[in-house]
Design brief:
Largest sheet: 6 strands, mixed
Strand order of the largest sheet: 2-1-3-5-6-4
CATH superfamily of the largest domain: Leucine Dehydrogenase, chain A, domain 1
Bound molecules: NADPH dihydro-nicotinamide-adenine-dinucleotide phosphate
CATH class of the largest domain: Alpha Beta
Number of strands: 14
Radius of gyration: 20 Å
Oligomer: single chain
């Protein structure tokens, strides 16, 4: 739709935002703009660096301007809670918001689409999730969002392994009893050996980001059957962790799928429409090649 038509006859183009600090290096705007173009949707997306002490003012301003929604990135995923009006179950349970949507009554709802994006990628490869055990490394923001969705999807069991075990224990305690999923923690002392067939292994720490040689301290036994190893790190796409897993016979899932899917879910929240995941994946690949 061209701008002149929208201005003279309506509907006015919808505006979306990304707020974080820093935001340079965040390719979401490009991914969203390519998706909107492909959908012939009159959306405009802006990337805004906000100072922490201006977060409330920024969100009140965005709401006053009826800005249709947006994304929240570090360090504000928890800090936005007091300034939003309602929350989805995913946002509440993960204690983090990465997606905001303007409601018909003018209020802002916070959602977390990170874990949902991951689960969608996983479901494309694994059909019997309710029978699977999951070992997940990490207990930060990405890990929490993923564990919430694994629990809501009622996987059989989740074992949390984190460098700082107390964080894993707090996360396990918070989600205990939400569904029938069994949640426990394990100490991470020395090299963690992956040796069980049928396991889903999730690398949800920040190790390996922008570093193709770094890998968490894990070893995969050779000849693993029906194991799927997933990494949340999206740059590089093929991480040292995924390479190690593949060499041992595991199937792998990269973090780019999760990143794309959370974007697709954001557009669905905002517009009710489906975006083309392939268009968005190509946009990210192009951005990361710079
Ligand atoms: P956080 O800072 O919240 O958490 C970092 C986690 O990594 C913690 O569990 C931390 O352990 C662990 N960690 C850090 N360094 C080490 C190390 N040397 N050895 C072992 N564990 C370590 O970060 P996020 O959860 O927000 O982000 C994690 C990763 O996920 C990042 O790479 C981010 O880019 C990616 N991400 C990907 C998304 C996607 O869509 N694909 C979406 C969101 C994030 P400890 O608790 O002991 O400090």
């Amino acid at each position: 739709m061209d701008t002149l038509h929208a201005l003279m006859k309506g509907p006015l183009p919808s505006l979306f935002f990304c707020i974080g600090n820093p935001v340079v290096g965040n390719p979401t705007q490009y991914m969203m703009e390519e998706a909107f173009l492909d959908m012939d949707f009159p959306g405009q997306y802006i990337t805004c660096e906000v100072e922490s002490d201006q977060l409330q003012t920024a969100l009140e301003g965005l709401k006053a301007l009826h800005v249709a929604g947006g994304n929240v990135t570090a360090p504000f995923k928890q800090q936005v809670f007091p300034y939003l009006d309602s929350f989805t179950e995913s946002a509440r349970l993960s204690n983090a918001v990465n997606c905001i949507t303007l409601q018909s009554d003018g209020t802002y709802q916070g959602d977390n689409t990170d874990g949902k994006g991951f689960l969608q990628s996983l479901k494309e490869q694994v059909s019997n999730l309710r029978e699977r055990r999951v070992v997940l490394f990490g207990s930060g923001g990405a890990a929490s969002a993923i564990v919430v969705e694994l629990v809501l999807a009622e996987v059989k069991e989740v074992v949390l392994v984190n460098r700082t075990r107390e964080k894993a224990e707090a996360l396990a305690e918070r989600l205990q009893g939400v569904t029938n999923t069994k949640i426990s923690t394990q100490a991470w002392e020395g090299t963690y050996q992956i040796e069980e067939d049928g396991l889903v292994v999730v690398q949800a720490t920040s190790v390996g980001l922008f570093d193709e040689n770094s890998c968490i301290d894990v070893a995969f036994s050779q000849g693993l059957r029906d194991v799927i190893a997933c990494d949340v790190v999206f740059n590089p796409t093929d991480t040292a962790f995924l390479k190690r897993a593949r060499q041992a016979g595991a199937a792998t899932l990269d973090g780019l799928g999760m990143l794309v899917n959370q974007g697709v879910l954001g557009i669905e929240n905002w517009t009710g429409r489906d975006a083309d995941a392939e268009v968005m994946r190509s946009a990210l690949a192009e951005a990361f090649s710079l």
